[in-house]
Amino acid sequence: MNKDMDNSPVSNFLNEVTDQISYKPLRPAIRQELEDHIEDRMEEYESQGISTDDAERQVIHGMGDAVIIGTELNEAHKLQKAPWLAVTSALLLLIGFAFSSYMFGTSSQVASGPLYYIPGGILLIVTSLKGYPLVIRYRKVLALLICSPYAAKIISALLLHNARIRILPPTISYFDLILVSPMIIVILYSLRLKRKNFLIAVFGGTLLGLIIINSNEFLSDTAAIIFILSTFTTICFMIHRGILIGRKRYLYSGTITVLVLLGSSLFLTESGQYNIKNFLMPQSSVHSTWDDTYNSILIQELLSRTSLTHGLELSSEEMMNYGTGAWYFASRDPKKIDIDAIGIHTDEQHQEFEDKVNDLKDQGYFPKYVHFTEENVTLWDILPQHYHNNYLIAVTIILFGWLPGLALIGAIVLFFVFLFSCINRIHGKLASSLAFCCGQCLLWQGVFYLLGNFGYQYSNFPNLPMISEGRVSIMFNMLLLGLIFSAYRYDRVMEEPVDYKPVAPA
């Protein structure tokens, strides 16, 4: 066979075919596959007594037109694009940037907020282009980087039992917990064919999960709920698609059992029940204007008074009542109404003010200080705390009316429809599992954020992907979205590893 000769018919045929393949790293694999096929066919012809040159010509003739073959192979193995998802993602990023810039003049806490969208957008593009291949190639290193904070926390927790050692456990941030969910999915995928290792990983992971989630730091954190929901909905997705090997009845039963074990740590404890009560019935837990539950009932009240077509319209007197908490506490406990801190000029006035504050503190009251009057109060003064980041959907409705707010919600829903539509079209087992998990991490953040904007806040506020700037969190959400784009992009051109052993989570 003259395939090694530059001008041989086989070499020319293979060059013609591979020239049609747009993803160049895939060309050698396709070329090798075609070479093997041609060689097998030539051996059949030669076994029939046909000369090598004649066998070569007949095989090439029987293969058909090289350009057509290459074009068909390229269609089946090309990089995929998701234009509608890209458009809606860019739209939401622009909305988030506009919100952050608009809030720039209303709160000192967002002084650098808009700047985070620049590196966030760059990270999204880079991850979309290179993310999935890098995850496969450096999965062990990534597992160590993501899981190391948990190892440090567990080790330090053990050391704390020694009375001679005085150290504090390291803080694990919001996204440290959420980002470990995709890594767990990659690990479970790698062990799915090795039942013993798979069961050890599940048992060990559940035990460590109980240790981490039961720590005071995570017991009341929304990130723990997002982590559990994202991980277990993805495992159910893998079972449904047949990615996890075994009888589905047993796999679902085991998944539900682990879910109940981890979930019970969040809902059956005193702290967990307190969070559920605040989530479902915020009115029952309001003690002062500092409370998140007060913010919940305040946002419900303001939304109920907002028109369909235009923003909230209130008199100065009404705004003062909302701004000081008098609308709620005047008939319940007037001492909880916020204190007027304006007009203090002399030492005598300052002393009187301090005496009043200290007297209230002695009685267990901690009202806020009010720095506005009925003459200069604005809508910004009556909004809940952290409105610039936690209540962007509600603030949109309050400023512009329900229709613009519903349009914003519609854009967010459309984004997730396009997102999971792309994920559903991913055929690779690892690619689809990883993308689905990242999508769940984004989705549950959006769900809890939306609920909080309508007065049903569970524990801490999450971030709204791409819109709620959250500063560094925009980077992590762009990483999750970029991995989805990348898994979809390379679904047809990358061969998924089968027999690798990622590092188990610490």
Mean pLDDT: 80
Share of helix, binned: 55-70%
Shape: elongated
The succession of helices and strands, N to C, reads HHHHHHHHHHHHHHHHEHEHHHHHH
Low-confidence stretches: 163-171, 216-220, 499-506
Query: What is the count of DSSP helices, taking H or I runs of 4+ residues?
Result: 23
Strand order of the largest sheet: 1-2
How many distinct beta strands? 2
Largest sheet: 2 strands, parallel
C-alpha-based Rg, rounded: 30 Å
Decide which structural class fits the backbone.
mainly alpha
Q: How far apart, in Å, are the first and last alpha carbons?
A: 54 Å
Strand % is under 5%
Key traits:
mainly alpha, two-stranded parallel ribbon, about 500 residues, disordered C terminus, elongated, 2 strands
Q: Can you give a write-up of this model?
A:
The protein is mainly alpha-helical. Helix content is 65%, strand content 1%. It has 23 helices and two strands. The chain has helices at 9-18, 27-47, 52-63, 66-76, 83-103, 117-137, 139-159, 174-190, 195-213, 216-219, 222-240, 248-267, 270-280, 292-304, 316-324, 326-329, 347-362, 379-382, 387-390, 392-400, 402-424, 429-453, 473-489; strands at 339-340, 369-370. A two-stranded parallel ribbon has the order 1-2. Helix 17 (347-362) links the parallel strand 1 and strand 2. Helix 1 packs antiparallel against helix 2, helix 7 (139-159) crosses helix 8 (174-190) and helix 21 runs antiparallel to helix 22. The two termini are 54 Å apart.
Concise structural overview:
The chain has 506 residues and is mainly α. Helix content is 65%, strand content 1%. Helix 17 (347-362) links the parallel strand 1 (339-340) and strand 2.
